[in-house]
Design goal:
Layout: H1 6-15, H2 31-42, H3 46-52, E1 54-57, H4 71-80, E2 84-86, H5 96-113, E3 119-122, H6 140-146, H7 149-164, E4 170-171, H8 195-210, E5 225-229, H9 248-264, E6 269-272, E7 276-277, E8 280-281, H10 286-295, E9 302-304, H11 309-315, H12 323-333, E10 338-339, H13 345-355, H14 361-377, H15 397-408, E11 412-416, E12 428-432, H16 440-443, H17 458-461, H18 467-474, E13 477-480, E14 484-486, E15 495-497, H19 500-507, E16 512-518, H20 536-546, E17 552-557, E18 573-576, H21 584-592, E19 652-659, E20 663-665, E21 669-678, E22 684-694, E23 705-714, E24 719-727, E25 733-734, E26 740-741, E27 745-751, E28 754-762
Parallel strand pairs: 1-2, 1-10, 2-3, 3-4, 5-6, 6-9, 12-13, 12-16, 16-17, 17-18, 20-28
Antiparallel strand pairs: 7-8, 11-18, 14-15, 19-21, 21-24, 22-23, 22-27, 25-26, 27-28
Helix pairs in contact: 1-8, 2-14, 3-13, 7-8, 7-15, 8-9, 11-12, 15-21, 18-21
Length: about 775
């Protein structure tokens, strides 16, 4: 596959500005499409309109035990004019041919009944994850750790290609939720805690999925759906689908930024946060849905609910007296399509609400326009059935190699005392831990099945390697003892503990102990926990092995950072592989033996204590200690490892940081340069991160913010000058009046151990 990233990367730099507001259309209107929409809308009945606004799950129309539409399902589609279907048919991954046949039947019915194609959507996360045989990538959190936007773009290109092979035109990704609470069980689905990383990676993934022309999505591309709008990853309790309490200032400055960037990049749809903020359900928040998103960005895309969430406005949030009232509130606020997903009663409610003049017909027409527009942009009216099997590159070696490269750049070396790693291939290894011989733990949730348990089935992952299998392929002497395992078919935290003494005895025969620990796979609410500390069984296993005096390498395989302060001092080396996917174990083995070099950095702050959860951009007033410099890790609020921490087998020296101006004003572009040299003995890649601190402001500033990053590769002794161009207005913050503010005063830029101070002499 030919790769040309220059236009993409240039585009990335242009679209992620957080200063100012744009009123030009986020997606330029296509005159021909708009004329077709109006012509079709003019002849649609109210029943057809509300049907387009309704999305059902596949099970509602599926004949049980088959991949066919049932007679009852056909009747439902015809009677209620259903506009969209979602989900896999078997609750696990299906073959491309099964999807094609099912969708063909749905489209036959839809075109015959209405002449309007159905819109089929699927949770294809980290690749075509619900398609048998597809190439799967690390989860988003791993891609973020690479700090390599090109990899996010490539993941999007391949995911779209292999999804379109199934005749599925719409995917519910990327996830743009800032993960601001490390307990949150969906942390691994996102690009981490930083708005800039979320924005850059989200834009790259969106463009990879959709291509470069959002008005004309090609046959190898799909429509993206940004989720979950807004502040889903900031739940106060850390539990899934629970409320946040984020100020409107912070919502606009940080949480809105990735969605804004991706919409300005052409994203065609958005999914709404399931819960509420400060007591207001997001599904009924007109200010955020219509004001900020549609009107504020002049965006003509479509907003869809999450699973049954309008019903939850009534049943869970209690801000509507009836389900019908909840429907009225949500559609009035700006929701266009309702993911019901089993009932058609919303169709009747919508008609009643229009007839009762509680819901303006203009709002219904606006919603239907947006739905039809998405279908026209996807080319579904011209070809409802897709291109069948004309995708010869499906699961090709080139795609597999891309996923492997992504895994290599996603695994983070956190600790390496006395340069224990890399290990000689002659090293005698004792391998233990519940994550040592499992495919499901490598992939996490949304991995052949919702909870990821299907990933341990031979039919899905038989050709791939667990950590144990991958280590055996690289090292001559690997002994694996399953003294601690996750309970089969049990709760994801359930563990089966056996005799640790066997492992202690086996350690005598080993040079190094490798302990693969972390979490079993989980997804959404199932992954809620009450204690971020790693399980007592795993902690005690490591402690017993440490008593042998043999060096320990900890392999952390987890969707969120579990607290390990009790055992961290016992390990000489620690690698966090996050959720690296099907090629993650092969990547790990290549890294451990030194065939490849580590280059990833943490995309989140790794907490040391369960009662001290923070993000890297905390307020300076939260830490009474004197700041010794932005890269002085000891000056941070105490964490196990800070955001952007990550080691390599080589070393990089930063020097000669400079700027093209000592003073700037609003509208200026500041050019900042720094020299980076590989001072070690092996080649290595280095994410070069530029941070900035507003030293004084009218509102307490963040201690630092990431403002740009670039990933480079240097041979031993090689140097490179890295140049960053920063728009002065991007240093603004959102004031109390929700307007962007750039104040006069000093700003400190830092890169590695270097820093410069630049003075703003005229703000806005």
């Amino acid at each position: 596959m030919k790769r040309n990233f220059l236009p993409i990367l240039t585009f990335l730099l242009a679209v992620v500005s957080c200063g100012g507001e744009k009123r030009t259309p986020a997606i330029p209107a296509d005159k021909e499409i708009e004329e077709k929409i109006e012509k079709l809308l003019s002849r649609m009945t109210i029943e057809e309109k509300v049907g387009q606004m309704t999305q059902l799950t596949s099970a509602a129309v599926l004949q049980s035990g088959t991949h066919n539409v049932s007679k009852e399902g056909e009747s439902i589609i015809r009677k209620y004019k259903i506009g969209s279907i979602l989900n896999t048919m078997d609750d696990v991954a299906d073959s491309a041919s099964a999807y094609r046949e099912f969708i063909r039947q749905i489209q036959d019915i839809s075109m015959d009944e209405m002449g309007i194609p159905c819109l089929y959507g699927l949770d294809q996360i980290h690749g075509a994850s619900y398609t048998v045989g597809a190439v799967l990538f690390p989860q988003e959190i791993g891609v973020a750790a690479s700090f390599n936007n090109e990899l996010a773009y490539e993941m999007g290109v391949i995911s779209a290609y292999e999804t379109r092979f199934c005749d599925v035109p719409w995917v519910f990704t990327p996830t743009l939720d800032l993960s601001r609470n490390q307990c949150w069980p969906r942390m691994w689905e996102s690009f981490g805690e930083d708005p800039l990383v979320q924005s850059r990676m989200g834009v790259a993934l969106t463009r990879g999925l959709q291509g470069l022309d959002p008005n004309h999505i090609g046959p190898e591309n799909v429509a993206a759906c940004l989720k979950h709008y807004l502040a889903y990853g900031a739940a106060v309790s850390g539990q899934d689908r629970t409320p946040s309490m984020v100020s409107r200032r912070e919502l606009k400055e940080k949480f809105f930024a990735p969605f804004k960037a991706c919409i300005e990049a052409g994203a065609l749809s958005v999914m709404v946060n399931s819960s509420n903020n400060d007591g207001v359900p997001f599904h009924t928040n007109k200010e955020l849905l219509t004001g900020w998103l549609k009107e504020g960005l002049n965006w003509d895309g479509m907003i869809v609910t999450d699973w049954a969430d309008i019903r939850n406005v009534y049943e869970r949030d209690h801000t509507a007296a009836t389900y019908k009232d909840a429907v009225c509130q949500s559609i009035s606020a700006g929701v266009d399509m309702i993911m019901e997903p089993y009932s058609t009663e919303v169709c009747d409610y919508l008609i009643e609400l229009v007839e009762e003049k509680k819901l303006p017909m203009e709002r219904v027409d606006d919603a239907v326009r947006r739905i039809l527009r998405l279908k026209f942009r996807l080319g579904l009216f011209d070809n409802p059935y897709g291109n069948g099997s004309k995708y010869e590159k499906f699961a090709c070696p080139e795609f597999e190699q891309t996923a492997y490269r992504t895994a290599l750049e996603s695994e983070v070396l956190l600790k390496n005392e006395d340069s224990l790693l890399p290990l000689s291939k002659d090293t005698r290894i004792l391998l233990v831990g519940p994550n040592a011989n499992s495919m499901r733990t490598l992939g996490g949730g949304w991995n052949y099945s919702w909870q990821g348990e299907a990933a341990d089935k031979e039919e899905f992952t038989g050709k791939y390697n667990t950590i144990y299998e991958a280590l055996k392929n690289k090292f001559k002497k690997v002994e694996y003892l399953p003294v601690l395992e996750y309970a089969p078919n049990g709760y994801f935290q359930a563990e089966v503990r056996m005799d640790y003494k066997k492992a202690v005895q086996a350690a005598k025969r080993a040079d190094v102990i490798v302990a693969a620990i972390g979490e079993n796979s989980y997804c959404e609410t199932v992954g809620n926990i009450n204690d971020l500390t790693l399980s007592i069984n795993q902690l005690e296993l490591v402690e017993e092995l440490a008593s042998t005096g043999k060096p320990i390498v900890l392999i952390l395989n987890e969707g969120r950072p579990r607290v390990i302060n009790r055992i961290e001092p016992l390990a000489m080396s620690i690698v966090n592989i996050l959720l690296p996917g099907n090629y993650g174990a092969d990547a790990l083995s290549a890294l451990l033996c030194g065939e490849e070099n580590f280059s990833a950095k943490l995309p989140y702050t790794y907490p040391k204590y369960v009662n001290r959860l923070n993000t890297y951009d905390y307020k300076l007033c939260e830490n009474r200690a004197t700041m010794g410099g932005l890269y002085n890790y000891d000056a941070n609020i105490e964490s196990q490892w800070p955001f952007a921490h990550g080691l390599s087998y080589t070393t990089f020296e930063y020097s000669n940081m400079r700027t093209d101006k000592q003073e700037f004003r609003t509208g200026d572009v500041i050019t900042i340069s720094v020299d980076v040299r590989n001072t070690g003995n092996v080649a290595g890649k280095e994410p070069v991160l530029l941070f900035c601190s507003d030293l004084y402001a009218s509102l307490t500033p963040d201690v630092r913010r990431l403002r740009d990053y670039k990933k480079i590769e240097l041979a031993p002794g090689q140097s490179q000058t890295i140049e960053f161009r920063i728009n002065a207005d991007d240093l603004s913050y959102v004031g109390e009046d929700l307007n962007w503010v750039l104040e006069a005063g000093e700003f400190r830029f830092a890169c590695g151990d270097q820093s410069v101070i630049v003075n703003c002499v005229s703000g806005k």
